[in-house]
Each structure stands twice: as C-alpha cells, then as structure tokens.
C-alpha cells in the first residue's frame, strides 16, 4: 500500500513546523541561511510546477496513484535531466523548509521521504510505466537518471 506523496509531503511540512515549536531550532537562523533556503525552495517549486505543467499540456495525469491513466512518457523539459522532477522539486522544498527552520526532525523526515519515494513509490511507478510503455519507457530509463 502506497501513501500519496502530496499527503506525505504535507505531513512532513507540518511535522517540521511542529518540531520547531517543541524541540527548538538546531541553529539561529541568519540572512545567509534564509537566502539559501529561499533559493532552494524557489528552484524546487519551479522544477515541480514546470513538470506538472508538461503533464497537463500533454493530457496525462499528475496523480501518481492512478498510473493506468498515464497517456504518454514525457521526455522534454525537466524530464531531460530527471525522471522524477516533481518528486525532486518537492524534496527540495521540504529541505529548504527544514533549513530555514533549522529543524532536526525536518531533515530526518526529508531523508525518510526521499527513501520512501525511491524504494516504494518510484519503483511502483516504473514497473507500471514499463508494462504500459515498454519501448518508450525503456528508452527514457536508458537516457535519463532517476534523480539527476
């Protein structure tokens, strides 16, 4: 049984905020750390949103829980560098939040989220895409790495 990644990501964001309330920050935030966190968050958001826009333009689903509705294998835009730019963008956003809030629970949660995505979610998606688009997805896998 897989957990929808957006729900899991929202839970991680809430846990990150809550952990700061109870555990306090790992360090005192400063302008440099805040600036780095902002840049990482913006890059992650751009990656996530641009990848979703490609899906919408191509008429395929962004819902990773309904893989049978996938209409096409996309290999343009951010998908030239990563097979999972939406997940990579979300990880960047959560990392930026953890950095900004200096949250130990946040950093640990982001790591566990990335492991979950890599070992559970993405493996299931890749299996489904391989079955649905054997030639196209095999070509994509040979040219593009899973993350970067």
Automatic annotation (TrEMBL):
Membrane topology: Multi-pass membrane protein
InterPro entries: Metal_cation-efflux_comp, Phopholipid_MeTrfase
Organism: Dyella jejuensis
Location of the protein in the cell: Endomembrane system
Superkingdom field: Bacteria
Record's protein name: Isoprenylcysteine carboxylmethyltransferase family protein
Keywords of this entry: Membrane, Transmembrane, Transmembrane helix
Main location: membrane
Residues annotated as signal peptide: none
Transmembrane helix found in the keyword field: yes
Pfam families: PEMT
PANTHER family per record: BLL3993 PROTEIN
Record field: transmembrane: 30-49, 61-79, 91-117
This protein's record includes keyword Magnesium: no
């Amino acid at each position: 049984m897989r957990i929808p990644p957006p729900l899991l990501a929202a839970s991680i964001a809430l846990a990150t905020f809550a952990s700061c309330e109870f555990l306090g920050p790992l360090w005192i935030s400063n302008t440099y750390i805040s600036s780095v966190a902002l840049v990482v968050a913006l890059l992650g958001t751009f990656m996530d949103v641009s990848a979703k826009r490609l899906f919408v333009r191509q008429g395929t689903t962004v819902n990773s829980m309904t893989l049978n509705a996938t209409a096409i294998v996309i290999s343009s835009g951010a998908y030239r560098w990563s097979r999972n730019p939406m997940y990579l963008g979300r990880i960047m956003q959560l990392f930026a939040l953890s950095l900004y809030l200096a949250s130990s629970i946040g950093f640990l949660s982001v790591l566990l989220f990335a492991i979950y995505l890599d070992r559970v979610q993405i493996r299931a998606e890749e299996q489904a895409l391989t079955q649905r688009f054997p030639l196209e997805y095999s070509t994509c896998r040979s040219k593009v790495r899973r993350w970067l």
